[in-house]
Specification:
With 299 residues, this protein is an all-alpha fold. The chain is built from 17 helices and no strands. Helix 16 (263-280) packs antiparallel against helix 17. The two termini are 39 Å apart.
Length: 299
């Protein structure tokens, strides 16, 4: 059928319609990602993956703006499915298509997506650069819906690079913006970064703010973004010296992660629990958690 389609005069028009369908659907997926559970999101949108690949393959040679648009709206799929490395390659290829006259909106979403897919890799500097560019573009566009979450992500990348003051300023602005934008995942993520920033500053405000922001993070605990946020909260508790709180929070999160595919987060939390148990003098428990962390990361 594909051979017959390629040989027909309608091939270009049908391919274009297919690519436009993929763009429309991936944009809806990006919106739904903010509010849907992981299970429902993947059930609904995981079947789009092969269509996404096909559309990007065609658009890369036939319609660069459409390729950029699809790539920029597809990052939640690459992120939530175990295909992040492929997603980085796909979005990086789309970045090479950017031109001086590419619309700011298309570039902003593509830069944001690249930053998201660089997270949890060694390329944190690249993530920060991509988010910085995305923030600047969203500001130019006065895009209130996307600016707050982009600033929060920029703040987290800054935190990972040790730029604590920059991260602190960013997250304060981000929280105000995402609360007004009604984006649950972005709000939980912003709170989790705030916990980590305050912990690095050795601020006792993290204990007070944990009471306000903790429930927001926990409400998204069964979602991938929520588990990452909760992991950051555990790290923040450990940073301020609450060893027992970190161990208890870590064990709670480990129980939630056992039956999920988020083995990278599981390994991270097990590593923190191992460190906390070491501080408490429980070397046997620490060794067991460390071994579990290695096994989870290896998967």
């Amino acid at each position: 059928m594909l051979e017959k389609l390629s040989a027909s005069e309608e091939a270009h028009a049908i391919r274009l319609k297919h690519a436009q369908y993929v763009l429309q659907t991936s944009r809806q997926a990006m919106a739904d990602w903010e509010t849907m559970s992981d299970t429902l999101f993947l059930d609904r949108y995981a079947p789009l993956l092969d269509d996404l690949r096909s559309a990007l393959d065609w658009c890369m040679h036939e319609n660069s703006d459409l390729a950029i648009a699809i790539a920029g709206s597809s990052w939640p799929l690459w992120r939530e499915l175990p295909v992040r490395a492929e997603g980085r390659r796909r979005l990086s290829a789309a970045v090479s298509l950017l031109k001086s006259d590419t619309s700011a909106e298309l570039e902003a979403h593509l830069r944001r997506g690249m930053g998201e897919l660089y997270f949890n890799t060694a390329a944190v500097k690249d993530a920060r650069q991509e988010f910085e560019r995305a923030v600047a573009l969203f500001r130019t566009l006065d895009d209130k819906q996307n600016l707050g979450s982009a600033i929060a992500a920029f703040g987290y990348a800054s935190l990972m690079l040790g730029n604590i003051e920059e991260a602190h300023a960013s997250i304060e602005e981000a929280l105000q913006r995402v609360e007004r934008a009604h984006r649950p995942r972005a709000l939980a993520a912003a709170w989790s970064v705030k916990f980590c920033v305050e912990a690095r500053l050795k601020s006792h405000a993290v204990s007070r703010n944990r009471n306000e922001g903790g429930p927001i993070v926990r409400n998204h605990g069964r979602r991938s973004r929520g588990t990452r946020c909760f992991a950051n909260l555990v790290e923040a508790v450990l940073e301020i010296g609450d060893i027992d709180g970190a161990i208890a929070g870590g064990h709670t999160l480990i129980a939630r992660l056992r039956d999920t595919y988020h083995t990278d987060i599981l390994g991270y939390v097990l590593g923190m629990v191992s460190g906390a148990l070491t501080f408490r003098g429980d070397t046997g428990g620490a060794l067991s958690a460390a071994i579990g962390s290695c096994a989870a990361v290896a998967r």
